[in-house]
Amino acid sequence: MPPNTQHTYDATLGAALIGLTLTSILYGLTSLQTFFYYTRYYKDNAILKILVSWTWILDTVHTAIVGHILYYYLVTNYNNPPALNLIVWSLALEVGITTFATVAVQSFFIWRVWILSRRSWLITGPIIILAFIAFVSGLACMAEAFMLGTIQNLIKIEWVVGVKHGSIAAADIGIAATQCWYLHFSRTGTKRTDNMINTLMIYTINRGILNSIAAVADLACFLAMPDNFVWLAFNLIMAKLYSNSLLATLNTRNALLGRGADTDLEVTKGTLHISGSRRNRHTNALSDWEVGKPSTQGVQLDLVLDTTQQMTKEESGSHVSFAARVEGC
User: Which of 24, 67, 144, 204 has the maximal Cβ count within 10 Å?
Assistant: First the structure.
């Protein structure tokens, strides 16, 4: 490590402290969103509830681990610069926890791609492979960190780190691009239905870009500055970004109702039926929908709404209906 200078502390303890601060803020958001989820969507199926619980538990453990990392460097080894080159056990474990949090959230979004693509392995398969590579390489990074023992030696596994973050970013981009593609071709031509789809696309793009930027920034800082903790600041917040992206997706479903179809909207437990005008120029997935009843083959928007509501018809014309299942949305 460099000698004991102010610059050394700024790039190591200072960067780690910034990471801890951001991590704590994002954990508060995770806890708040978890509370909102269980109070507003208590009728969701068990799988979704387990996923949310698992995500919050991982986030809680991750926050405690991050606290231990900073305690080790700031308190236990106060004014001990050589200790900054040591990899404490909690730092290695943090990599593993982030890996599990990432794969849990990505699995949820991959499932949505699977549904939107009508269970197409050709579309979903490459994304699954990327996510699996990220998971395996993440566990490999954790194991290597335990064995290498020093920050300086981490440069020996830079290729593993590169594969891990590259796969994470590629999977996120693939998920976002695929969902936007199918959402784009599920437009009905009615204003409020299309507004809902546009909002879903914006959320999807923002989620994918934010998580990808964090992964790429982590990798870039690690490769450019492997002897300090600037990369660690980005790594510490990655798990939180994924947790909040999942919970934000689940908690905004009711808000999207106000941007729905231009005609009759009926929401019942288990299925959402929306009728809207269809543009004749479309020759996409909408052509498979049947007039007047939900299609079993059409694109299914990933909305889950648990109450029965009615909206007044504002436009006339030929009508199509589609369904969004509660399971897994």
Answer: 204
